[in-house]
Each structure stands twice: as structure tokens, then as C-alpha cells.
Amino acid sequence: MLKAYHHCLLEAGTDEAGRGCLAGPVTAAAVILKENFINEILTDSKQLSENKRNLLKPIIEQEALCYGVVHISPEEIDEINILNASILGMHRSLEKLHTSPEFIIVDGNKFKPFLEIPHECIVKGDGKYMSIAAASVLAKTYRDAYMEEIHKEFPMYNWKKNKGYPTKEHRAAIEKYGITKYHRKSFRLLPEQLKLEV
Question: What cofactor does this chain's UniProt record say it requires (predicted)?
Fold first, then answer.
């Protein structure tokens, strides 16, 4: 079972989803859990089925002390690159917390200081610490719901299934139909041998 990183400090965990996608936003979440929060199922969202993530989402929202979720648009990703967009998303999700954390734990190995709050980057932190796992579940479920919504606008890319990731089917649709306003133009959308007219 996952644990807290600091037991004596008010701790926010933060994570993002959709970094490796060709379309759609990168979505970040930050969560401060109550001190006595326990959940047997909660772990890194990638290890959970869609059903379990959807089951956990309202539990986290109801039982967290506070949480924030934000989407960073493809335009912003193209402008500042995906790493900076991911960090910006985490900062913006932290800004949405109505209680200021005393410590921030971040999934991964890259972050920029947020206000004057000390932080720690933890590789695979979403599989080790509850607040990061909770943030990973919220980021993933909110992003998936967004992709399912924009799927209705452009069903030929099947985003409700591939969520914008570079599947064979998604790349074949890009080759056939070109790109949409939701595609990240700074990403290599097709392999080198298939050139795309932008």
C-alpha cells in the first residue's frame, strides 16, 4: 500500500497525463490528501484499469483536503515545449489548491520551484506515494474525459479509444485526413517516411 512522503507536513502531490500524445492537452493535477486518507486500490493510474480509475476519481475528489486539475492546450505545448508545458500545468494545478501546501512531491525528475515551497522530485513517485497517485488518477481521468468529448468533433481519429496517443490507427488517420486544431504541430506526427503537409 502507498504512503505519505512527509507525515509532519501538509503535502501536495502533483503529476501529469498525456505527455506522449500527438493530440489534445497535457493535463496536470495536484492533490492534498487528508492525514487519515487510506485506499487499498490507489496506485499509479497506468497500473489501474479504466473502471478502477473512474471509481477512484469521485473518492479522491470527496476525500481530498483539496485538489486542482488543469489542461495545457496544444498551442501552449507547441510554444513552450512539452516539458515546460507539463511543469506549467503542475504549477497551475497547485495554484488552484485552496490550502497552501508546506511541501510538494512531484512525479518524475524535472520541476521548477513553485513559490517558496520546498519540493522533491520522485521518479515513479506515482507508484510510491498516495498524493502523487491521486494526482495521477485525476490527471488521467480528466484528460480521458476531454479526449472523449473532442472525439465527437473528429471521430475519424478514434480519440475515445486511443486518447491521442501515437497508435498505428491514429497515425493512419493523420496520414489520411491531415491534422486538426487539437494536434501538436511541434511533435513528429508521422514517421519520417510519411511527410505531412502542414
Answer: Mn(2+); Mg(2+)
In this prediction, residue 196 carries a pLDDT of: 56
Q: What is the mean pLDDT of the chain?
A: 94
Domain annotation covers residue 1: no
Distance CA 15, CA 31 (A): 9
Mark the binding-site residues for a divalent metal cation, compressed into ranges. Answer: 15-16, 107
Q: What is the CATH number of the domain that holds 37?
A: 3.30.420.10
Q: How far is residue 86's CA from residue 165's CA, in Å, rounded to a whole number?
A: 16
Assess contact for 189 and 175: CB atoms under 8 A. Answer: no
> Which among 94, 106, 37 has a CA at the least distance from the CA of 67?
94
Q: What kind and span of H or E run contains 119?
A: strand 119-122
| C-alpha to C-alpha distance for 81 and 78, rounded to whole angstroms | 6
* 138-191 confidence digits (pLDDT tens): 999 999 999 999 999 999 999 999 999 999 999 999 999 999 999 999 998 887
